[in-house]
Amino acid sequence: MGDRRENVADNLIIIKNAMGARRIFSTHQTHGTKILVLDSHAAESFKNSLQADAMITNLPGAGLMIKQADCQAVILFDPRENVVANIHCGWRGNVQNILGRVVHMMTHHFDCSSEHLMAAIGPSLGPCCAEFTTHRDIFPPVFEDFMVRENHFDLWRLSTHQLVTEGLNPDNITLSGICTRCHTDRFFSYRGEGVTGRFGTVVMLTQ
Questions:
Q1: By C-alpha distance, which of 186, 183, 66 is closest to 121?
Q2: Using 50, 70 and 90 to split pLDDT, how confident is the model at 3?
Q3: How far apart are CA 115 and CA 167, in angstroms?
Q4: Residue 138 backbone dihedrals phi, psi, to 5 degrees
Q5: pTM more than 0.85
Q6: Which terminus of the chain has a smaller tally of CB atoms within 10 A, N or C?
Q7: If you ran DSSP here, which 8-state letter would residue 188 be given?
Q8: Of 124, 157, 151, whose CA–CA distance to 138 is shortest?
């Protein structure tokens, strides 16, 4: 994707050491809805070639990394059950409601309660630049509620709405509000650069 493999490997070591992680876990992201639950057994047999667009764990020291170049990384955390998730959510993820699917998985697999979940939506394509001229073909009609001007959509507000619909408290949702296309000096952006690298969002439980 425009990154040299040795640079990627070096950066992963820097992240691992800076966070004090036992291991950084990342997947082959496909804009799908597969969710990987990392318990101790799954972590032992984990391979980075696994396909998934979301990871959930209750293991301390397991860094969950989502790779981005305009898509959202959405972190979910349950401070009561000590469970964390990291989600790759582009527009296809919004269409398939991957955020709702992960909330359901957290509640069913780890006994989390949606009203206790905290969420963070990281730097990603903002409403200033999220233009979809084919939106009538790719978006359900309800998404037009999030159109801010002709062909432009507020995917941040859409993701927030999808989380609130699943029971999250709006006060527990934090939005970075940084558009990656507007800030290619700080972030990779597929919309802004075409062939480009990926930056990562990593979350980890410390205890």
A1: 66
A2: low
A3: 6
A4: -110, -20
A5: yes
A6: C
A7: -
A8: 151
